Amino acid sequence: MKTADLYDQYGEQLQVAAPEFKDYGGRRGFHGEITTLKLFEDNSLMRETLGQRGDARVLVVDGGGSLRCALLGDQLARLGMDSGWSGIIIYGCIRDAEEIAAMDFGVKALNTNPTKSVKRGEGQKDISVRFAGVRFTPGEYAYADTDGIVLSETKLNITEPAA
């Protein structure tokens, strides 16, 4: 499941996110149904969401592009991995990058910052969010790897590489 191959096969059916993200998780390729959060410098809703059963979904977090604090650290990444999430795409920062790189969990974010977020319990869940030139809609599908992120309104027929 390479995003370049998906684009070659499905082309204009896909949205392609602007190449703004870096790979931080140990799992470089991940995909799944989208669940969204919209928040700003407050990761309380992320903890709640990542603690729920992931069912191989992708959590997309519109953090407003803030570079002032991290929205994800190693504890939340481990929670998401253990809860069965495929990965997370964050329009914001992470911290604990070295620890996250050792996890079998997909993480794409803008950058790193050692500063932790505030905890006010603010944010919205399962609304369409827009960043990187695309709209992320709950219930649609995200496919991510080292080449980038593509989005599809429907689940794509993909073949996983043989182990």
Structural class from helices and strands?
alpha/beta
End-to-end C-alpha gap: 13 Å
Q: Can you identify the CATH class?
A: Alpha Beta
| H and E order | HEEEHEEHEHEEEEEE
Q: What's the CATH H-level superfamily name?
A: Ribonuclease E inhibitor RraA/RraA-like
Q: Flag low-confidence runs.
A: none
Structural domains: how many: 1
Number of strands: 12
What does the secondary structure layout of this molecule look like, with pairings?
Layout: H1 3-10, E1 15-16, E2 22-23, E3 30-38, H2 44-50, E4 58-62, E5 70-72, H3 74-82, E6 87-94, H4 97-101, E7 106-112, E8 124-125, E9 129-131, E10 134-136, E11 141-145, E12 148-152
Parallel strand pairs: 3-4, 4-6, 5-6, 6-7
Antiparallel strand pairs: 1-12, 2-7, 3-8, 3-11, 9-10, 11-12
Characterization of this structure:
This protein has helices spanning 3-10, 44-50, 74-82, 97-101; strands at residues 15-16, 22-23, 30-38, 58-62, 70-72, 87-94, 106-112, 124-125, 129-131, 134-136, 141-145, 148-152. Helix 2 runs parallel beside helix 3. The chain has one domain: Ribonuclease E inhibitor RraA/RraA-like (Glucose Oxidase, domain 1). With 163 residues, it is of the alpha/beta class.
